[in-house]
Amino acid sequence: MLSKRILRVVLLLVFSLKICALDFDDLKDTKVNFISAVYYTEWSFYNKHYPIDVPLSQITNIYYAFAKIDPSSESTKWADKNVALEESFPLYHAEFPNSCGARDEQLYFELSGSKGSNEFVNSTGLIGQLSQMKELKKGLKISLAVGGENTNTLFNKITSDDAQIENFSTNLVQTMVDYGFDGLDIDWEFPTTENASKLIALMKSLKEKFESHERMNGLETNSYLLSLALPLDISSLLCYDFEILQKYVSYFNLMGYDMTGPWSEKSGYHSNLYPADDSSGASIDTSVRFLLERIDRKKLILGMPNYGRSYDCMKPGDKFHTCANIAGVEQKKKQCIINYHDLPPDGFIEVYNSTVGSSYAYNQNRGIVFYDSPLAARQKAAYVKQMGLAGGFWWDSYGDSYCNSNNRSLLHNFVDELGGTSALKLNDEVINENFYNGQDDEPARSCAMRRHLVRTKELFNFTLCALIVFIELLLL
C-alpha cells in the first residue's frame, strides 16, 4: 500500500516538473519575431531627413543605401563621404516636419555623459548617427546596402573572375566591420541567367567571410546578416538559383512595388497585393507564392513603398501622357513619384481597394495617384502573418509621415496590425526609457511592460510549480 502511494507521488512529481518545463518552452516557442525594417537613403540628408527621424520602437532593422561599387578599387565608396562620415549635425533636430526621433533632452545628456549641460549631443556623419541609434536601442540591426538601381553591369564587372570576387567580398566585409554595420544587403539589380552563377559565388564568399569573422570574434553563428534584394517580376526571379542561394542568405527582401509606372501603357496599381483587373496578373501574392516553393518563408521579407506613382488620367487602366498635376509637389516625368507624406493630395479623394490590396486617390481634373494607404498597410501586415513571412520593409524612410497626428504612418499601422511592438523581433532589445517613439510613450512602455510581464510570468510559473512539488512531498 505504501509502495503504491510512493509510486503515485513520484509519478505526480515527474508530471508536475514536466508541465513546468513545457510551460517555459511554450513561452519561448510562442514568441513572435517579425522584422520591421526601413531603407534609409544617403541623399535623404539633403531633404533634412536623418536616421534619427525614424521611430525606433517601431523598427528592428535599418538598411543604409547605398555604398557605390568602385570597380577600380574592387571595393565600394560613399556617394558623399562628407555626409556619410564627417558632417557634424545635432542628434535631435526640428527642421523636418516628420521628425519623430528623440524629443527628450535628457536622452542626449545621458548619451554624452554631460547631464546638466545645455548642449545637445551631435552626430558625426550619418554612419555616426546610426551607431548612436544602436546605443539608444540595443538589438537594432543596421546593414550596409550595396548597389542599387541598374547595377547589373557594375556587379557583373566586379565579379568577372574568382580573384575579383575574393577581393571584392574581402573589401566589403572589411568595410562592414570597420564602420560597425551588422550585415550587408546586396542590391544587384538585376542578375541575368548569364551571370547568375557570379551572384552565387559572391554570396558564398561573403557568407564564408562572415563565418570567419564570427569565429575570430567569439560571436554566435549568423550574427552578421546577409540579405539579397529581389525583383517582383517572375521572369526575373527565374534567373536566381534559390536552392543554393538560401544556404547563404539570411533574408530575401522582395521589392513589392513598381509594377507599373511612366513606362507602362496604362495607369495602374504599382504595389497591389493581389492581381488587378488587367492582363498582366502581376501581384505581390503571385511572386510570394512562386518564392515559397523555393525558399524558407521565414527568410522572406515583404517590401512596401513609402511613395505613390501618378498619372494624368482619371481611373485605373486609363491611358496617360505624363504625371498627374499635383500642386506644390515636384515630380520627375520619368518617375512620377510622390512621397507618401504628401498623400492624398489636397482636393483628391482616397479609395482603398481591399480586393487588390492597395489604394489610389483621384481628382477628375488633375489625375490619379496609386499608393498604399494605412488600410492597405494593415492588409499587408495581416498577409505577412497569414503567410508566415519574416516581416516587412519600406523603401524608403523619407516618404512616411511618422508624426502625423491622425496616425496615417504606414509603419505605425503595419506594426500595430502585426500585434504592436511586442510582436517584433527583439534580439537583445532595450529601449531607452527617455526615447520618444513618434506618437506617445506607449510603445516604449509596452516593450518594457512586455519584458516585465514575461519575467513576472516566469516567476509565477516557477513559484506555482515549486508549491505543487512541495505539497506532493508533504503528502508523501
Automatic annotation (TrEMBL):
GO biological process: chitin catabolic process; polysaccharide catabolic process
UniProt cross-references to InterPro entries, sorted A to Z: Chitinase_II/V-like_cat, Chitinase_insertion_sf, GH, Glyco_hydro18_cat, Glyco_hydro_18_chit_AS, Glycosyl_Hydrlase_18
Catalytic activity: Random endo-hydrolysis of N-acetyl-beta-D-glucosaminide (1->4)-beta-linkages in chitin and chitodextrins
Keywords per UniProt: Carbohydrate metabolism, Chitin degradation, Glycosidase, Hydrolase, Polysaccharide degradation, Signal
Documented EC number(s): 3.2.1.14
GH18 domain sequence ranges: 34-421
One CC-aspect GO term: extracellular region
Molecular function terms from GO: chitin binding; endochitinase activity
Protein name: chitinase
Lineage of producing organism: Eukaryota, Fungi, Dikarya, Ascomycota, Saccharomycotina
